[in-house]
Specification:
The complex is a heterodimer of chains A (115) and B (113).
Chain A lengths: L3 E4 L2 E4 L5 E7 L4 E9 L5 E8 L5 E2 L8 E7 L2 E6 L8 E9 L6 E2 L3 E5 L1
Parallel strand pairs in A: 2-11
Antiparallel strand pairs in A: 1-3, 3-8, 4-5, 4-9, 5-6, 7-8, 9-10, 9-11
Chain B lengths: L2 E3 L4 E5 L4 E3 L2 E3 L5 E7 L5 E7 L5 E3 L5 E5 L4 E6 L8 E8 L7 E2 L3 E6 L1
Classes of the chains: A mainly beta (115), B mainly beta (113).
Chain lengths: 115, 113
């Protein structure tokens, strides 16, 4: 149980385009989902916290207009990188927390490369 | 503010030898503590967690960790390392219910034959 999926696993796009990444909790309802960014050989940096049905809470320094987060249902959150640039290239990981639990379960990550 | 320190950036252990990865946290009350493992290019897998109760917790893949309040530590151990244990290990803490995880910088484990 407690499986989280992400799609796509890898994406290559041109500079200036937008990319959407999906995060799904497959066998549980997640009232809260989190989006992290990880640079090579570094730890995870929290970008934003997403609560179902409400606006996401962004960490300091994260541009909310560039990284659009939508948590439309209890099993799906999306991260859209708008007008992507090469510096947005990174590994993006989501996690989900089941209702009533404190443990977070992580997706397999999405590798974004912006050319 | 809560923080997590993993003092060792890289550790190499011989296959079959024991392992201990260090983790120190900073938080006033009793924290919720986690160890996750990440293989290259993959997401994070939960190894074990501590919320309360017995300070020695057992996890998956033969790992265990001990919460020591006096030392603000939550070190991860395994009695006999396998080559498949080579990965990145992250210690993390929740300070309060509802807040996000705070991660340490990770320890890279290499296993030599």
């Amino acid at each position: 149980g407690a499986v989280v999926s992400q799609h796509p696993s890898r994406v290559i796009c041109k500079s200036g385009t937008s990319v959407k990444i999906e995060c799904r909790s497959l066998d549980f309802q997640a009232t809260t989902m989190f989006w992290y960014r990880q640079f090579p050989k570094q730890s995870l940096m929290l970008m934003a916290t997403s609560n179902e049905g409400s606006k996401a809470t962004y960490e300091q320094g994260v541009e909310k207009d560039k990284f659009l987060i939508n948590h439309a249902s209890l099993t799906l959150s999306t991260l859209t990188v708008t007008s992507a640039h090469p510096e947005d290239s990174s590994f993006y990981i989501c996690s989900a927390r089941p209702r009533g639990q404190e443990t977070q379960y992580f997706g397999p990550g999405t590798r974004l490369l912006v050319l | 503010a809560q923080s997590v320190t993993q003092p060792d950036i890289h550790i190499t252990v011989s296959e079959g030898a024991s392992l201990e990865l260090r983790c120190n946290y900073s938080y006033g009350a009793t924290p919720y503590l986690f160890w996750y493992v990440q293989s290259p290019g993959q997401g994070l897998q939960l190894l074990l967690k501590y919320f309360s109760g017995d300070t020695l917790v057992q996890g998956i893949k033969g790992f265990e960790a001990e919460f020591k309040r006096s030392q603000s530590s939550f070190n991860l151990r395994k009695p006999s390392v396998h080559w498949s244990d080579a990965a990145e290990y992250f210690c993390a803490v929740y300070g309060q219910a509802g807040t996000a995880l705070i991660f340490g910088k990770g320890t890279t484990l290499s296993v030599s034959s």
